[in-house]
Amino acid sequence: MSNHTPPWRIGSVRYLNAVPLIFGHDQELLLAHPSVLASDLHTRRLDAALVPVFEVLNHPGYCIVDGVGIISDGAVYSVFLATLPGETALRHIALDPASLTSVNLIRVICKERGMSIETFTEALPDSLPATGRGVLFIGDQALEFRRRWGDQFSYLDLGEAWKSLTGLPFVYAAWALGSWVEEAEALAEMLRAWGRNGVSAIPQIVEQQAASQRREAQAYLGGHIRYAMGAREREGLALYGALLEKHGRINEKPQFSFV
């Protein structure tokens, strides 16, 4: 490997859960919503991006940086279906369109649970549940919704639902590299190093949050969210891909590799 570092074009999400993966970096980054990053990577405007894993599963040819991701092994806290308390006849689900992974995960969970949902529609992040209608929230918008509304609504945590369904962790986002990237192994190791450094700095990241939100941030970053991707996480990722194919959410069997 040469000592030259290529001018890689890298993108990451703006969400709090991604901060430990980019904390203290010394590269120029594009910060954007997950769906924007997926589009920019697909059209080669980026060389690497922290993307929803649906992007990797839906488009062949990407390399996934092994060993690191945004993961939960049970409740994730920031990806949930909000409904009215006691809701028993859910017919419609409004979807926060920011993450393709979560939008398709709720569809898979509903199918596997035998839930007959009449319609799925895109929604503004501040849409509220109503009779017969649930709303999917993700990321920082989800955290803010919990702070604002608390137990006025019920929450189906998608990480918890996936763990109950499969017994496996769920990978929400991963670093994906385009097949055209030069010195991909060097880039992957750099991104893993960012993750190692950032996870060790979680106490510092928590202290940077508003005082009223530090306890929540500690529980979230230091508990609900996990950043190490190993064999069980890879198994969960492969199963998600298989279920997407089973339920017609992707056109062909997922094809990806790890670097």
Can you characterise this structure?
The chain has 10 helices and 13 strands. The model has no long low-confidence stretch (mean pLDDT 93). The radius of gyration is 18 Å and the shape is globular. Helix 4 (100-113) packs across helix 6 (158-166). The strands form 2 sheets. Strands 1, 2, 3, 4, 5, 11, 12 and 13 form an 8-stranded mixed sheet that branches. A 5-stranded mixed sheet has the order 8-7-9-6-10. It has helices at residues 19-22, 34-42, 53-58, 100-113, 139-149, 158-166, 184-200, 202-207, 214-224, 231-246, and strands at 10-13, 29-32, 48-52, 63-64, 68-72, 79-83, 92-95, 119-122, 133-138, 154-157, 170-177, 226-228, 257-258. It has 259 residues and is α/β, with parallel strands linked by helices. The protein folds into 2 domains: 10-73 and 169-200 and 228-258, Periplasmic binding protein-like II (D-Maltodextrin-Binding Protein, domain 2, 3-Layer(aba) Sandwich); 79-166, Periplasmic binding protein-like II (D-Maltodextrin-Binding Protein, domain 2), CATH 3.40.190.10.
